[in-house]
Every structure is written in structure tokens, then in C-alpha cells.
């Protein structure tokens, strides 16, 4: 059951629309003021819709639409008007503000019809954002198993992996499968100026506390996804730690981070105590160069998706194209692979993409990692990656790996890598 926010000045009309929507399977939330609307919007789950009268206490439907745009809240607004020909009805539709208008006398019939069109399930919303791409590597099969195991719990999770590996999609999948999926979902970028929230000068607390605390208040019973938690500055770390350790909010926190977070914790530039509150469980996402068996599957996913959007048969990769894709180290991971595949599909006239049709960037950043090995498979992958980045120059590859050239030569011979 998904939620519909009703913003209406008239008590009787709020009751009427609430009863109408309840009877057809929706969960209405009715408010009568702009202030209450803003609070309610913060708690809406993905896929919800808003029904608003043209005027209500403290605001108008058009002002509400403009506020939603400014806050980057992607909820469709259906405006209730007296007559379709009124100037106000036209005004609220300008610049694609409200998605539709309904005459008040036609509420009984039109409102349920529009709900079917604009209210969506959480699953559908997450899929349109780019759902999980199911793959065959044992590493990713294990990740999917862990997701299913922890989704039904309330533990906080940190998802660690390089940029471009779809960590946010894993976070959304945990939310989708959880028992909180019908409740509010808030996504926050830790390194962005958008992490400001709403201040309350009367609280006697710092602005940073008020703003971060506001996120938790607005997401009570729901989930907060904090992207790139390693970019959170020390002051915000301290506030977040206080909220989690002292106030124990009814909010699940899922964080994404790049591997440097672990180094920051060791160096204490990221508070270790906060890390362990956030990382009750973790998921490690291996880079694409370590799961090359997944490359053709991911590439085919984007070819299928692009073909579906265009309404035409999907193109396919030749053996030479697959070989070239597997040879590249993909420092930008899935994000980089997606661009290469879409570019090739758009520029090839036929149905087959060959190696010559692929445009692959070779301006590759140097890895900042040493050969801190956990098993032979990982060691081999890192050596292959370093040799690829160094274009076969052993001295440069050894430098990337943090070992001497003699040791690298021994390992190459040991693994039969020439």
C-alpha cells in the first residue's frame, strides 16, 4: 500500500478524499497547512503522490510545486480546482508544475484514476533509478545472499567499494526488501552542501546538530542512505555519533563509502566509534577488474535496456568485443563500462558490436594500494591490473604494487603469467 499526501484547507474535503483513497487501497495522509505539508513530504516513501487544493493555510499549490522542485523532491502533484478553465488552473500547470488537475465535482471518479497513473510501488521506483544487475560471479552471488539475509533486520550497514560499482543500488535493494520499505527513505550526499537540513534556533543546540537531527526526525521508522560517508567532516561525524549513541533514533542507516574509509578509521581522521555504530555489518563490493566474468552480463544488460527504450531489437557483442572488454582494467568500473557500451550501440549501424566499434579511455589513474594480499586469486588480479596499467613495464607495475621488480618477476613466473 503506497501513500498519498492530501493538502487541503477544508476539513470536510480532507475527510472525503481520505475515505475515497482508503477505499481503493491507498494510505492517505491529510494536512491543511504548508508547514505541515513540508514535514509530511519529508516522511513520504518513494512512489507516493500529492493531492493539493489551489490554496491552503500558508501556501498555494503552485508554491508547493516550486518548493518540491527546489528541494529535489520528485513527487507528482495533482491539483484540485473549481473549474478547468480558471486562470489558476492554467497557472498551476505552467512549466510542468502540477502533473494534472481535477475539478472538485469530479473528485470521486478522477482521483482514483490518476492514482493508478502516478502512484508507484517502491520496487518500480527503485528499478527506474537503476536496480541491481544480477550477475554470475561468486563474489556478487554472495553479495545478493547477504542482502537477503540482512534486509529483514534493522542493523546499520556500510557498503564499501570503489566509485562506479553500484553501491547505492545495493543500499536501495536492502531498503526495498526490508520491513521499512513502506516508510520514508532519505538519501543524503555526505560530501555535498545539500547536507544542511533545517535549523531550529530555539533548540539551544548547534546548527549542525539541528539540521542532522532533522533528517532523523523526518525519517522516523524509515531509512537514511548516506552516500560517501568518508567525506563527512569531523564536526558532522561528532553530531552523528551523538545522535546514534545517545538518542537511538528509530531509523536504519545505510552508508556507502570508498575503501579509503578503512584507512581513515585507522588514522582516526574518521571517528572509529562512529564507524562501528554505522558498520554493524558491512558489504564489500569488488571492483570490476576483479570480477571480469560479470563484464559481458553487465554490458548485455545495458544493451537490452537501451533497446527497450528505443523500441528496437538489442544489439549484441562479438567475441572480439567481449575479449577487449575483459582486457581493460575499468578504473571507472560499471559507470565507465556503461558509457562505452551505450556509445558503441548508438554509433553502430548493424546488430553486432565489434572490438573496433568500442571507444575505451586509456587515461587511467594510478592505484593507491599496495599488495596487501588476502588470497592468491586477489594477488593475481592485482598483478594483472598493475601490469595492464603499466602497459607491461615491470618496473612501473612493481611500483604500483609496492614491491620490488625481482619479487614481481618471481610472482609472474609463479602464476605462469610470462
TrEMBL record:
One of its GO terms (biological process) is regulation of DNA-templated transcription. Keywords: ATP-binding, Nucleotide-binding, Transcription, Transcription regulation. One of its GO terms (molecular function) is ATP binding. Pfam families: AAA_lid_14 (PF25601), HTH_8 (PF02954), Sigma54_activat (PF00158). Residues 3-119 form the Response regulatory domain. The keyword Nucleotide-binding applies. The keyword Transmembrane helix does not apply. Residues 133-346 form the Sigma-54 factor interaction domain. Gene3D superfamilies: 1.10.8.60, 3.40.50.2300, Homeodomain-like, P-loop containing nucleotide triphosphate hydrolases. PROSITE patterns: RESPONSE_REGULATORY (PS50110), SIGMA54_INTERACT_4 (PS50045). InterPro entries: AAA_lid_NorR, CheY-like_superfamily, Homeodomain-like_sf, HTH_Fis, P-loop_NTPase, Sig_transdc_resp-reg_receiver, Sigma_54_int. This is Sigma-54-dependent Fis family transcriptional regulator. It comes from Paramuribaculum intestinale.
